[in-house]
Design goal:
By secondary structure, the protein is α/β, with parallel strands linked by helices. Helices cover 32% and strands 25% of the residues.
């Protein structure tokens, strides 16, 4: 089913010399007769109407494929003629204030779509491929970003523990998870919690690449790699700005990691993200960056692992029995379970899912964890200690939602399989 509304498609292509070959593919269209500005606006508007997080415009062998990411999954929206490659990428370059004549290199930009689009913002990435330029636009809706820490979907215990860590005078708090799992949203909500509680009596600064949403009373620093203004140099400069709280968009290298750790040890609260396979694996990742274990054990207060899980569509819900064996759940609990999945309908565009929710695990660094890190114990051992001391793993949190019919067992397995160490 094509996502672009029929009447809107007719308005854009009313002079086109072609026909709808399939539900997705337009062929034999005269590109010179199409208003590119209107076409691009229609693609963006339809993506927004379907709550998409990203738009992928990619040249394939016979067409330009336009796909949108809904609830974490890519869905084909429409195919367009290859002749429109340069016009579409050129139009988006202009919108993102990029040099439209520059090709063959990776480009990044952003644009505000204005009042007609409810002031949504696009973060644009363009990269050359052998078939032409691929464009990906990340969609941000500032009106939907309330950044309320109580609405992140954390269970009460995790939320209370996270807030306790957050309100400490110094230390390092890290978030872990794949791209698009809500790490930035969780950090922004954490910063807003501190600002709402302490007002203008606290100095908060951030280093981001790029700055995604403007936060009140936060000094948000954006990077400029062309001039050598990197995470490390920006963080080093911020240390001389007398901040209490520093947010670092991502710890990518040894220099940034070293400065962040030192900042956490010298009277600053530092919040950042680190990419690793698992929550407990963050320690090994930082040790591989040549950060001394004793510095990690002294500075890190906690690590929050996040995943976004798709919810069953309530309009086409049916009961089912999962085929896989569910480990760690008692027979009595399995008998009480209400397993459900959605078959797909017009409301969910046939996907069976509608919306997403967070599952998380919070690894609190206590004396036992510190000793294990100091001794360079394997990640599996750190997980065992953390679970023995009360950490509720992602699988356990997620499977409880599956037992209650909120999502499927397969979805939880898919989102947490990499975390089984």
């Amino acid at each position: 089913m094509a996502f672009i509304k029929k009447k809107r498609k007719e308005a854009v292509l009313e002079r086109a010399e072609g026909i709808l070959h399939s539900e997705f593919f337009l062929q034999s269209v005269a590109p010179q007769s199409i208003g590119i500005e209107e076409l691009v606006n229609c693609l963006i508007r339809d993506a927004v109407e379907h709550n998409a997080s990203d738009i992928h415009i990619e040249p394939w062998e016979n067409a330009i494929a336009v796909r949108i990411r809904i609830n974490g999954a890519l869905v084909e929206m429409i195919h367009l003629p290859l002749e429109l490659r340069e016009k579409i990428s050129g139009r988006i370059k202009v919108m993102a204030e990029l040099k439209s004549h520059v090709t063959g290199v990776a480009l990044d930009g952003k644009c505000n779509m204005g009042p007609d689009f409810n002031n949504i913002q696009l973060r644009v990435s363009i990269i050359p491929t052998i078939l032409g330029e691929k464009v990906v636009c990340r969609i941000f809706d500032p009106n939907s970003q309330l950044f309320d820490i109580s609405k992140l979907g954390f269970d009460d215990h995790t939320l209370n523990e996270w807030i306790k860590m957050l309100e400490k005078p110094n230390g390092l708090l890290l978030l872990n998870g794949p791209t698009g799992c809500g790490k930035t949203t969780a950090i922004y909500a954490s910063l807003m919690h501190l600002i709402n509680k302490m007002g203008t009596s606290i100095s908060v600064a951030s280093v981001e690449d790029p700055v995604e949403v403007h936060l009140p009373t936060v000094s948000q620093v954006f990077l400029n790699s062309d001039s050598g203004f990197t995470f490390a140099s920006a963080l080093r400069g911020l240390m001389r700005q007398d901040p209490e709280v520093i947010m670092v968009g991502e710890i990518r290298d040894q220099e940034t990691a070293g400065i962040a750790v030192q900042a956490g040890l010298t009277g600053h609260m530092v919040i950042s993200t680190v990419h690793s396979g698992t929550t407990a694996g963050v320690f090994a990742r930082l040790i591989n960056m040549d950060i001394e274990p004793f510095l990690l054990s002294s500075s890190i207060l906690g690590i929050l692992g996040l995943r976004l899980v798709r919810k069953n569509c309530p309009n086409c819900l049916v009961s089912y029995e999962p085929e896989m064996i569910i480990a760690g759940v008692s027979e009595d609990r399995l008998k009480e379970a209400t397993f459900a999945r959605s078959e797909g309908c017009d409301q969910c565009s046939g996907s069976g899912f509608s919306g997403r929710f967070s599952i998380c695990e919070l690894l609190k660094v206590d004396d036992e964890i510190r000793d294990a890190v100091m001794a360079k114990k394997p990640t599996r051992r750190i997980v065992e200690i953390a679970e023995a001391n009360g950490m509720k793993p992602l699988w356990t949190t997620g499977i409880e939602h599956a037992l209650n019919g909120v999502t499927t067992v397969e979805e939880i397995m898919n989102k947490t399989a990499a975390d089984q160490v």
